[in-house]
């Protein structure tokens, strides 16, 4: 099928919950993707922070193809080597003792929320089930995780929501304190709010939050679906903050593009699950786990955490310069290679104009551009993306000036 036809059929046959841009991507290499008409794009958000190793990374491709020839799937009624090795590797890399595998971020969070409840009921024998999450957070689209998401626009039309969630102000410890009651079980938070507009947590707030959870006997859950797997320049963002959670969820970058999610926890908390209390048919299958092993090993062997930190710092400083230069650019923010540029004008036309010039950017909400390139990105590529963005901003600036002159 030609791309026009594919777009037409896609628009007719896919459900209406996405607003796709009018290109059909066909293949990728490193930080570049090509559409089916042969146009090349510099991918500055890597499948929304998923393709940690870029596209078509030889180690990931080899791991996946070798595993596909060996064993694609077995149920969790059996062990498989990739699953066990991945659980051991994640435990070694993090604070956690045990891992539950899922297929997505929402499922990993769903597992964390269920474990929090069962741990309180079955292990601590306490009637605590409420979870405090943050306003402007994002935790997924299942009924529990969409309820956990502190943004009304995602709730609309799906009521009644799941009971037991309260929303506090991000970076405001007193707002959390005010919501704690006898039935509070946990606080769940993203170290950097990604979908909410790329808002990093304040380090002091994070330390106070850990202390508060300890004082009140609450579990602290970090949703690292977006921030984990090197995105913030450390393997997990909690290491950047030096604040250790009790549970942590991962997905996005974990499989380098192969769907996999994970919920990690300490031994004591894990006792909330017993055989039969939670499960997933596909969760932790050998193919996805082998992909995740290859991703983690490559992040280590190619020193991609350092690259993330270095290029992230460069991008952030250049984006901050753009904020100083253009009136309609409000602020640059973020950590590592999870960066946001807030505009006072609409972000969507900027995304479209950059796309026409061969750079893929992502708009979150109406006014924020998100940069989440793969961790392998080189300085020259970051510079090329910035050049295109500057051209687009120059155009906006001259249009605004012309309008003011005629106006
Ligand atoms: C912080 C966070 N949590 C959870 C999710 C949901 O992940 P998924 O779309 O894989 O279910 C996302 C997705 O953007 C996310 O950014």
Structural description of this entry:
The structure is a single chain. With about 400 residues, this protein is α/β, with parallel strands linked by helices. The chain has two domains: about 5-55 and about 305-405, Aspartate Aminotransferase, domain 1, CATH 3.90.1150; about 70-300, 3-Layer(aba) Sandwich (Aspartate Aminotransferase, domain 2). The protein contains 15 helices and 17 strands. The protein has a seven-stranded mixed β-sheet with strand order 4-12-11-10-7-5-6, with helices on both faces. A four-stranded mixed β-sheet has the order 1-2-3-15. A four-stranded antiparallel β-sheet has the order 13-14-17-16, covered by helices on one side. Strand 16 and strand 17 form a beta hairpin. Helix 3 (about 60-70) runs antiparallel to helix 12 (about 285-300) and helix 4 crosses helix 12 (about 285-300). It is globular. The N and C termini lie far apart (about 45 Å). Pyridoxal-5'-phosphate binds near residues 104, 106 and 223.
* SS summary, helix count: 15
CATH homologous superfamily name of the largest domain? Type I PLP-dependent aspartate aminotransferase-like (Major domain)
Range of strand content: 15-25%
Mean of residue pLDDT?
A: 97
What is the third-level CATH name, the topology of the largest domain? Aspartate Aminotransferase, domain 2
**Regions with pLDDT < 50 over 5+ consecutive residues?**
none
N- and C-termini, Cα separation = 47 Å
Query: Which sequence of strands runs across the widest sheet?
Result: 4-12-11-10-7-5-6
Rg, rounded, reads 22 Å
How many separate domains? Answer: 2
Q: What is the approximate shape?
A: globular
- Helix/strand/pairing category: alpha/beta
So what's the CATH class of the largest domain? Alpha Beta
Share of helix among residues?
A: 40-55%
Q: Which molecules are bound in this entry?
A: pyridoxal-5'-phosphate
> What CATH architecture of the largest domain do you see?
3-Layer(aba) Sandwich
Largest beta-sheet details: 7 strands, mixed
Number of strands: 17
């Amino acid at each position: 099928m030609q791309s026009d036809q594919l777009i037409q059929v896609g628009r007719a046959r896919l459900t209406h919950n996405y607003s796709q841009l009018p290109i059909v991507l066909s293949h990728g290499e490193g930080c570049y993707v090509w559409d089916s008409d042969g146009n090349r794009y510099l991918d500055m958000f890597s499948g929304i922070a998923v393709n940690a190793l870029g596209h078509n990374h030889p180690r990931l491709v080899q791991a996946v193809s070798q595993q596909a020839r060996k064993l694609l799937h077995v149920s969790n009624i059996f062990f498989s080597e990739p699953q066990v090795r991945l659980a051991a590797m994640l435990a070694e890399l993090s604070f956690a003792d045990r891992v539950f595998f899922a297929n997505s971020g929402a499922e990993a969070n769903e597992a964390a929320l269920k474990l929090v409840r069962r741990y309180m009921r079955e292990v601590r024998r306490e009637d605590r089930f409420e979870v405090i999450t943050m306003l402007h957070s994002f935790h997924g689209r299942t009924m529990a995780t969409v309820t956990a998401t502190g943004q009304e626009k995602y709730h609309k039309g799906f009521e009644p929501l799941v009971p037991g969630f309260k929303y506090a102000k991000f970076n405001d410890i007193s707002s959390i304190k005010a919501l704690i009651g006898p039935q509070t079980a946990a606080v769940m938070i993203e170290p950097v709010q990604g979908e909410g507009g790329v808002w990093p947590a304040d380090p002091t707030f994070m330390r106070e939050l850990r202390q508060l959870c300890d004082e009140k006997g609450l579990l602290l859950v970090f949703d690292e679906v977006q921030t984990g797997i090197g995105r913030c320049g450390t393997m997990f963002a909690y290491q950047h903050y030096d604040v250790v959670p009790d549970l942590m969820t991962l997905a996005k970058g974990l499989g380098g593009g192969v769907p996999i999610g994970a919920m990690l926890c300490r031994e004591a908390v894990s006792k909330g699950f017993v055989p039969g209390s939670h499960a997933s048919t596909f969760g932790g299958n050998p193919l996805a786990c082998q992909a995740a092993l290859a991703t983690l090993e490559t992040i280590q062997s190619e020193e991609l955490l350092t690259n993330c930190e270095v290029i992230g710092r460069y991008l952030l400083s250049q984006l901050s310069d753009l904020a100083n230069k253009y009136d309609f650019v409000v602020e640059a923010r973020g950590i590592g290679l999870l960066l946001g540029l807030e505009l006072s004008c609409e972000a969507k036309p900027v995304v479209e104009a950059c796309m026409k010039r061969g750079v893929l950017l992502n708009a979150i909400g109406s006014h924020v551009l998100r940069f989440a390139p793969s961790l392998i990105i080189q300085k020259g590529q970051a510079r090329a993306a910035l050049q295109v963005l500057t051209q687009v901003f120059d155009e906006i600036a001259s249009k605004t000036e012309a309008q003011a002159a005629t106006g």
